[in-house]
Amino acid sequence: MVEWRVRAIRGAITASENTVEAIREAVTELL
After folding, report:
1. Where are the domains of the chain?
2. How far apart (Å, rounded) are the C-alpha atoms in residues 8 and 31?
């Protein structure tokens, strides 16, 4: 599992599905 430490982030993401994997992919793309 990936450990993320983020202080502040601004932006919007849309995940393809409401699953951990889809959300993780969307967040990675945002970063």
Report:
1. 1-31
2. 11
Please write the tens of the pLDDT for every residue from 1-31: 677 676 766 777 778 888 888 888 888 888 7
Which three-class secondary structure state does DSSP give residue 23? helix
Q: Phi-psi category of 7—alpha, beta or left, where left has phi over 0 and alpha has psi -120 to 50?
A: alpha
CA gap 7, 20 in Å, rounded = 21
Query: Can you tell me the distance from the alpha carbon of 25 to that of 13, in angstroms, rounded to the nearest whole number?
Result: 10
Cβ–Cβ under 8 Å, residues 9 and 30? yes
pTM for the predicted model, two decimal places: 0.51
